[in-house]
Amino acid sequence: MTKAYDALIIGAGHNGLVCAFYLAKAGLKVRIVEARDVVGGAAVTEEFAPGFRNSVASYTVSLLQPKVIADMKLADHGYRVIERPISNFLPQEDGGYLKLGGGLERTQKEFARFSAHDAARLPEYYDMLEGVADVLRDLALKSPPNVGDGFKTLLDAARQGRGLTKLSLSQQRDVLELFTKSARTFLDSWFESEAVKAAFGFDAVVGNYASPDTPGSAYVLLHHVFGEVNGKKGAWGHSVGGMGAITQMMAKVCTQLGVEISLEAPVARVLVDGNKAVGVKLVSGEEIVAARVIANVGPKLLYERMFDEGDIAPEFRRRIKAFKAGSGTFRMNVALSELPRFTCLPEPGEHHQSGIILAPTLDYMDRAFLDAKQYGWSKKPIVEMLIPSTVDDSLAPPGQHVASLFCQQFAPELPDGRDWDAEEGKAADTIIDTVEAYAPGFRASIVGRQILSPKGLERKFGLVGGDIMHGNMSLDQLWSARPVLGNGAYRGPVKGLYMCGAGTHPGGGVTGAPGHNAAQVILRDRGFFAPRWR
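Given the sequence above, the corresponding structure tokens read:
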């Protein structure tokens, strides 16, 4: 066995790096083991065609916690995010389009082309969302109360619930509706235009293998408004150099603090001795001893594939088996000889620098999900296209471009025993056909492409079922119940085991919050009073 460490982290994704930073800063001896040959997890920038680079999986910035950015001094290492001039651009099936963002008054004018009623309601809708989001933002950097800790559970719940009690009765009703209602039911109570409802409803199916009619889908809509860019709440932007630039900066900060990062070091299993995690065994056979093992991988991957069966209690294993994972996501990166020319708005403009949403109505999104349930993928999938090379010329040769195609409603497992490796090319062609219908000539402009089906995402990044969130963001898998009630405060079911990935509170997205929070719990447990509190 090799030398012992104070903490060993499985996975060098952004949350693992954030956790390592806080632990190392507190004086712990930390080592990270990463299966791939590069740090960053799903937040990486890679060349996928000669001369063309892009953020391979995670592709846009908003949710990364300002505290993490400040504490790690990422700006000193070149962290820079370019805001979108407008949030989203939605071509319509009738040849029109809708733009969302660019300020309240501008969005109201845009909405007024579809509905005067919706334009008038927009300020109240934004105020409602922001009021609820502020309370939940406050919870993002706090460890949830751990059910089973007795009186401490009650104290933690009371402290964290204080923000909710300050909300008005109307706001508390909004919270209840957002957590329980479908996105369609919720949006129907606010707006009348199908285009306007689609503009907001898209967020409800991002990373969510569900219909906008699915109860609870309204919460996923809310999850995506928590973020900010350059101090502007709710804004989204592009990280110069791609998402990998962020994680490379994080890794540099960590190594400066003495963190050891081992690449191409996949973990075979977690070593357990007397109901305590004592280290890991790598696929290479190397065993690494550590006082604490911290998993920055999803709960499914960790507990179903990295533990001997007898090391985890049968009850906990049963709960993890029931933990839902599979976000219905299909990712493509394409190299383009020219910008796409949309029929509704063919010339270059700000819409090319926004999120281009090909999902014109909630009915369209619902049909996409029903197709995926029946056939394995949508006949007309939900597609979000970003073209980061319009603002970052480091990603493509002069005059050419890269585009991210983030696509929804692709079954984690195909029906009838079909395999994604055999079918992914057909699915990719369906996606390109979908874009071609709105931007004729798009197919002819493609000079290279990278395809990642749900199976491909799992194989490349360890995302079980291709789940970009490490597990569904449903009401039964949030806060203290993420991943399992009684283990929702970053502590695993055996002593010395912790979790710091998106399968813990507050969930998916490039936030850094799980890594931050897990580190605080670990450091508290290390303190003098830790045994008494535990």
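Residues 116-140 form the longest helix (25 residues). Try to locate this feature in the token string yourself.
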